[in-house]
């Protein structure tokens, strides 16, 4: 999404980076020996000082040749030798060369004492650092994301039936807001600045319906505009468009909103839709929006189409079809035999594969993964596991993995047990034989 600064933002375009000193990093840890100091000081230098984007950018301008290559690859050590110039830490590389970090540590030194036997020792060190140049250009946020609360999503499963109208619970938290920002470590505040009055932001970043307020069938289309402001005062504005299905069990086709806007208050970004099907056999379609859409199927057998963004799809009750589209999507089928489907073009690239997550895949409920419209003639599939979760790695054209599907609720061993498979390769075969995996 586009990033733009208003004239008031430009007045605050520079900010001083927030530095974490060594004493702040220590917290409640006591410096009572040389070993404790060496361990903690090295950790602070490695994680805080060298992890500062400003320090990284500065080192990129100071190092060259083999040293620069080694730094980028992480092939260096942080040394605390007090005999270095001005007593500052320095870096050593595999070729025995070194680089002094003196310019980062130009202030006065602090010290601590410890006793070993009858001898009292004193160690001097720099408690703080500064990035050469001091001030850096602050950049505004570039996106606002709403991550839906699972309890809220589950409250909509089967909402409404033949005799009662579909609606959300009243006064409920929909989810958590976060901002995408090019400045690593930036913090943000959020405010609703325009639109429907049913909403409020609580606990700093949770979007909530006010007490007694609901979203219900027949509400049609309505919006709210949210401001994200970073610690330097730069802002970004985004419109969230809500769409609710018609009254009763009418089969609705609810399209998304075409993306537009530049992120300013005068022209906020539009394209992030939150669509509720409620009752009826609905088709919820983002219309290939580049926004991050959120779709709730509701009670019957619904079809949900994501778009180009990183979407969240919740099928609800019934046998739903969920098509995430491009981007990295989160897919919840809900109760019933659901089909998770991928189309040609939904995959990423070999350099940057698309990564989609199925949160509740169930053989028992009859869930299916449909890849027939995604795969080329030389496609290859392989199950693996990372961080305790099963992953299906897909080479759609046989030239490298360009699509990953993570099974968030199952390890590889659990999937193999469910399908009585002997190994990862056999799991593909067993899922094909059972009809839970479709490739043609």
Automatic annotation (TrEMBL):
Keywords: Calcium, Secreted. GO terms for molecular function: calcium ion binding. GO terms for cellular component: extracellular region. InterPro entries: Hemolysin-typ_Ca-bd_CS, Hemolysn_Ca-bd, RTX_toxin/Mannuronan_C5-epim, Serralysin-like_metalloprot_C, T1SS_VCA0849. It comes from the Bacteria. Its main location: secreted. SUPFAM superfamilies: beta-Roll. PROSITE patterns: HEMOLYSIN_CALCIUM. Pfam families: HemolysinCabind (PF00353). It is found in: Secreted. This is Type I secretion C-terminal target domain-containing protein. It comes from Billgrantia tianxiuensis. The lineage of its organism: Bacteria, Pseudomonadati, Pseudomonadota, Gammaproteobacteria, Oceanospirillales.
């Amino acid at each position: 999404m586009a990033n733009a600064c208003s004239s008031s933002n430009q007045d605050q375009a520079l900010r001083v980076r927030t530095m974490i000193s060594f004493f702040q990093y220590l917290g409640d840890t006591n410096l009572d020996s040389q070993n404790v100091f060496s361990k903690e000081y090295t950790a602070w230098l490695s994680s805080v000082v060298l992890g500062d984007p400003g320090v990284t950018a500065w080192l990129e301008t100071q190092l060259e040749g083999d040293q620069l290559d080694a730094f980028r690859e992480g092939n260096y050590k942080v040394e605390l030798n007090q005999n270095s110039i001005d007593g500052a830490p320095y870096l050593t590389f595999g070729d025995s060369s070194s680089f002094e970090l003196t310019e980062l540590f130009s202030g006065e030194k602090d010290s601590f004492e410890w006793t070993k036997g009858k001898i009292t020792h004193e160690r001097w060190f720099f408690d703080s650092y500064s990035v050469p140049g001091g001030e850096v250009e602050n950049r505004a946020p570039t996106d606002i994301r709403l991550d839906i609360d699972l309890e809220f999503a589950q409250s909509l499963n089967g909402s409404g039936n033949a005799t009662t109208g579909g609606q959300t619970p009243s006064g409920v938290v929909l989810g958590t807001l976060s901002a995408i920002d090019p400045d690593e470590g930036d913090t943000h505040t959020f405010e609703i600045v325009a639109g429907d009055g049913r909403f409020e932001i609580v606990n700093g970043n949770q979007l909530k319906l006010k007490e007694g307020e609901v979203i219900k069938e027949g509400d049609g289309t309505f919006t709210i505009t949210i401001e994200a402001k970073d610690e330097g005062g730069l802002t970004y504005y985004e419109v969230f468009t809500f769409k609710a299905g018609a009254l009763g069990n009418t089969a609705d086709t609810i399209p998304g909103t075409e993306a537009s806007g530049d992120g300013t208050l005068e022209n906020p970004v539009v394209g992030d839709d939150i669509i509720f099907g409620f009752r009826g056999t609905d088709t919820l379609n983002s219309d290939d929006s580049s926004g991050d859409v959120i779709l709730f199927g509701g009670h019957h057998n619904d079809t949900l189409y994501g778009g180009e963004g990183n979407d969240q799809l919740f099928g609800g009750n019934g046998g739903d079809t969920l098509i995430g589209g491009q981007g990295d999507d989160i897919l919840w089928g809900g109760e019933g035999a659901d089909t998770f489907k991928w189309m040609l073009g939904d995959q990423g690239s070999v350099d940057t594969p698309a990564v989609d997550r199925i949160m509740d895949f169930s053989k028992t409920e009859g869930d299916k993964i449909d890849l027939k419209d995604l795969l080329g003639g030389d496609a290859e599939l392989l199950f693996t596991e990372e961080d305790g979760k099963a992953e299906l790695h897909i080479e759609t054209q046989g030239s490298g993995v360009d699509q990953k599907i993570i099974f968030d609720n199952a390890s590889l061993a659990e999937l193999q047990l469910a399908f009585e498979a002997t190994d990862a390769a056999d799991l593909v075969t067993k899922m094909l034989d059972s009809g839970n995996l479709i490739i043609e």
